Amino acid sequence: MEPLAFVDLETTGATATVDRITEIGIVEVDADGVREWSRLVNPERSIPGFIQNMTGITDDMVRAAPTFDAVAAEVLERLQGKLFIAHNAPFDYGFLKSEFQRVGHDFRATVLCTVKLSRRLFPEHRRHSLDALIERHGLRADGRHRALADAQLIHQFWQQLRQSQPEDHLAALIEELTARPSLPAHLDPGIVDELPEGPGVYLLYGENALPLYVGKAKDIKQRVLAHFAGGRVTASALSLAQQVRRIDWIVTGGEIGAQLKQVALIRQLQPARNRQPRRDSELGAIAMAPWPFAGPAGIKEGDEVHVVDGWCYLGSAKSEDGLWSLLDQQQPEFDRDIYRILVKAAARLVPLQKTRP
Asked: What is the CATH number of the domain that holds 250?
């Protein structure tokens, strides 16, 4: 039997590069049987109140707990060589990869997401959250939103599938969901594990320092891999895929941030494979909506604020200092592509204070 690790984490938030783990739960299954393990982890920062209320894990509980650095070796030993199974697996896997990177280890595993597995096996149902699975499959939830309890629920779901699904069908589906995407030989296959599964922009580079192409995506990983998926593609797309030697990306708070960042980068870097926008001086006048505020405004999206003044995009900030830095800079020239993005999101604009309090 292939060794398995059913994994769940509790964290201080939803962003792996910023937030930290507060609890780890692992159910190991192999030829020696089933073993359960969990640890509270000191995130070295405060836990937001709403997360404390949801999980029951408080700042007092983790204050004396070991940091991830102290438990990393044991976690790695329990996960090494096992199929990594989690519900919404990109979340748990992404957090563990980030934590391991902080201690100098490049953690990689074959990953199976039980959300995707449930969707493929039960397409007639709309909801595939862990709560939905508990209700639908009669799973026993003891201590919901604690790491080990949720890992146990995932293991229970797996056991039910092994009993209810034809073995060959289940095995073929798992093989499909865990298959590694095919990449050109000149790209590091490890990039598949690094690509984020969220909104942002990606930059495809050839042999030179400037990118060939700047794209935007709701899901960076999915969109980037689509460039190399083959199938029915244009000669231009195939040519681009063959030239790519390096991939970079910038995660944004959401789709608006991705659109704004893409336009700004295309203007700045002029990548050869993007359609180059014409300057406003080369185009006729357009009917513009009046700027509805006396000063700058912002659009809150995810963990960042997009700062706008007079329909001009100043940049995006993730901290108060970053926000003031953007407000202090000179306003850029008007860009009608930026304007079209912002005017569609005008209802989300909130006025910002121009001077520091």
From this structure: 3.40.1440.10
